[in-house]
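Entry type: protein chain
Record version: 2
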Amino acid sequence: MLEKNEIVTGFTVGDRSYEMIPICRDGEKHVTFGTIRMRAREIQVSLGDDDGRYLLDKQHLIPVLKDKPIFVFTEWFGHEVSIGGIACISEHAGRWNVYFNRNRDNVWNNQHYFLRRKK
């Protein structure tokens, strides 16, 4: 069980452990859509549908996380993202769901995180 004010930098779900990496760097309040894929490649955090679907299937094992982070999956491809969207997983009312953000005018803030699978 997590403490109320504990800062979480990662978590384990089943046999997979993940590191949470903020999309915004020090001093940034938000970044644009175009920055997301470039930054993911730069820091090698391009997870796809295998990890996304794994987390959705095992969502009952995801710990309660402070500030309701949104996880970004830049390599989750399929018909849903064929027009260049980015897959995101977020929790609402106790359930984790995927949505595909295609809005290029959106800004991404400190609630958004890349995930890196730990070895």
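Comment: Confidence is low (pLDDT under 50) at residues 1-6.
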